[in-house]
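Collaborator request, handled under Task 6.
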Amino acid sequence: MLKNLLVLFVCISTTLCFSQNDFESELDSIQTLDEAKIYVQKNKSIKGQVITFNKEKHHTKLADELFSLGKGSKKVYKTDMEKTYYKVVDKNEIPYQKLSYIFLDGTKKSMEEINILRQNIIAKYKNGFRFEDLAKHYSMDNNANRGGDLGWVTQGDLHPDFEAHVLNDSHDVNDIFTVDIPDQKWYYVILKTEDTKYIEEIKVLKIIEPVK
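Structure tokens returned to the collaborator:
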């Protein structure tokens, strides 16, 4: 009886070991962002996701450790309950722009009122008023509380029609200009506040595996 129990224990241990090796091999075989997304989609039973770390926005110890890895490298964190795998599947420098804006709502004001307001705003800015103060006074959305600061943004962060007007190199720092999105009745005064900046980003496959 004892011999049979020992044989059973060895078989179970071997199976778990092979299972672990298979998982590690499968994880090591994932080399691209697309492969990572497909893996998560096909293995919905695991706790998997692809997350983005931005060097300008993320300053945690974990982010610093992941940024130190090369593409294709992974890091494993283990507790008594689970293992968490982080694998870098993409690493690039992404162009970002920094903008501030004043939003005017076309559902609440006529086009004539909006044009007059925008002329006044631009004139005041050119006469020395701070854009931050103008935004707090005139802007018609919650970003007014931040003085209109939109922060660092890149393609895919904003409405496509808005991006088409503002995320390009046709404007210099401190240029002030208007943007209209008539279909949405959105009207803006935009200030470009910083030069285009290339910021390092990594896409990381995160998988949580229970410890057996």
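The cover message to the collaborator said: "The chain has six helices and seven strands. The chain has a mean pLDDT of 87. Please let us know whether this matches your experimental observations."
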